Amino acid sequence: MKILVTYAVQGEFAELKFPGMRDGDEVQVGYLRTGIGKVKSAYYLTDAIGRLQPDLVINMGTVGTVSHRIGDIFVCRRFIDRDMEKVKSLGVDYEIDTSSLLERKGYCQHWQAQDGVCNTGDSFLTQLTEVTGDVVDMEAYAQAWVCRAKGVPFVAVKYVTDVIGQNSIKHWEDKLADARRALEAFFEQTGGV
C-alpha cells in the first residue's frame, strides 16, 4: 500500500509510522509539502498523484477553531470551501464528503479522534467570524477536491493550534512543536490505516 502524506509548511512535518497492513502488505509512506493555500496545494498534489499513484492521501497539519480547544485532534472526512460557500446561491459546489470512498476501501475507519468538518479558505483567519465546521485551514478542501477527481481516498488529521480571534498567528507558531508530537503519537496509536 502506498500512502501519500501531505502537509503545508515544514514546521508541520512529522514522520509517521504505520504498521504492516492485513496479510503482511508493506506500507510505503511518501511525503509532500504543498505550500500554503488552495492553488499551490491542488497543483502539487495533482502532480504527485500522477507520479506516485498513492492508494490513500492523508493531509496532516494544524488548524484554527472557533469552538474547540487547543490540542484537540480531528479526523476530517467532510470539507467546506469557505470562499465558494459565499456564492452557494449560484449553485457552486462548496462541500465534499470523502467518507464513502474511505469506507469502501476500509481505510481509517477505526481511528479514534473527534470527527470534524474542515473549513478551507485562502485567508488566515485572525478575527472571530461565523465559520461553518469545526476547524479551519487553507489547504484541505483543495486536496479533497483533487483526490475526489482522481478517485483516491482522502482524509485529513488536524491538530488545533489556535482559537480564532485570540492572537492566532502567534499561538500557531508557538504550538507547532506540540502539534508535531501529538500527530506522531496519534498515528502511532492508530494501528494502521
Point out poorly predicted stretches: none
Alpha-beta content class: alpha/beta
What is the count of DSSP helices, taking H or I runs of 4+ residues?
Answer: 5
Strand order of the largest sheet: 3-7-6-4-8
Largest sheet: 5 strands, mixed, barrel
Question: For the terminal residues, how far apart are their CA atoms?
Answer: 10 Å
Mean pLDDT across all amino acids:
89
Order of helices and strands: EEHEEHEHEEHEH
Give a written overview of the molecule.
- It is built from 5 helices and 8 strands.
- The longest helix has 23 residues.
- The mean pLDDT is 89.
- Strands 3-7-6-4-8 form a 5-stranded mixed beta barrel.
- α1 packs parallel to α4.
- The chain is of the alpha/beta class.
Brief characterization of the structure:
Helices cover 31% and strands 28% of the residues.
Topology at a glance:
Blueprint lengths: L1 E6 L20 E6 L4 H15 L3 E10 L7 E9 H4 L9 E3 L1 H7 L8 E7 L14 E3 L2 H11 L3 E10 L4 H23 L3
Parallel strand pairs: 1-2, 1-3, 3-8, 4-6, 6-7
Antiparallel strand pairs: 3-7, 4-5, 4-8
Helix pairs in contact: 1-4
